[in-house]
What does this fold into?
Amino acid sequence: MDSPVIPAASASSESSSESSGEPSGEPSSGSGPVSDTASDSPSARLAGPPGPPQARRGSDLDAVAEIAAARSQILNEIEKRIIGQRDVIDQLLIALFARGHCLFVGVPGLAKTLLISTLAETLNLRFQRIQFTPDLMPSDITGTEVLEEDHTTGHRVFKFIQGPVFANLVLADEINRTPPKTQAALLQCMQEYRVTASGRTFDLALPFLVFATQNPIEQEGTYPLPEAQLDRFMFQVDVGYPSEDEEEAIVKQQTSDYQPRLTQVLSPERIVELQNLVLRVPVADHVVKYAVALARATRPGTPGAPDFVNELLSWGAGPRASQYLVLASKARALLDGRFAVAIEDVTALARPVLQHRLLLNYRAEAAGVRPAELIARLLQAVKPS
It folds into this structure.
């Protein structure tokens, strides 16, 4: 029996529409000024001209096996430095291949920074860490112009110095410790994969991902992320404490001279190609309807919303939530070596996709209700059609 064919994604499925809240489609590549030439798109530069349908089919089927094998290799490399946190790592890999940014929430000392830097080293990605502080300025992130003098001619010219956002993987450490003006410097980068500075627009090199961290304990001197920026994160990943056995292993490893050497698994160019493969994974209509039903059920006052949603939520998830549910489910299926998305993929990813998009009202806050509890009830109330 022949394996199912992964169809090519239509141009409309990769288009970006800010007004409808869709995740951005095919981003630009490179770090120079934006070009209007169609051949400068990443698919044209990295993938080249499309081949015959039969060759495309065989290539895609081989790539499915490749991405599943790469997952195992990446896990092996990460586990040389990180003990435990398997769910966190799985969600990190799903976001990577689905082109999704992540918000990591956890107390200090849980190896969030080490995990992300290890992933970047394993995948040969350029990594930059930005420590967000109250005095951080937008130009500290995007870059700034400096006045330089040409010693040959004596003329002075302005030269743009790229900021740390010009990387493949940007770690925004304690992102809620900087004012909204500086937080907003990441908005265009996250949505359009571009940076506008000093009247010019620059493309960011692909792949480009923002992984941000937050400390859930300390709230003094912090600036909560606005809803518009929270919505641009595909996942909120909760990083919990290790088990007793894991913590003992961590202590033994970190108090020794153990220095593991990592083997690079994929290249940035191949990661972009596999990200494009995710867009070509087929999704059955009943899976799409279920993802949309879950997102719509979080909106109080809408037809079909459960009573507890109307009682405990002020606002629910927007259209990005249902799109991210499907995109992340596609990536999860591929990483598992499967050719199509199942309902179980959507339910497994409902919590990281939805929990930072639910705005609790005063009743829920007074009762101590958490978004994760509401999502668990939501999965019981909304059934696949």
In short: Residues 29 and 205 are 5 Å apart (CA to CA).
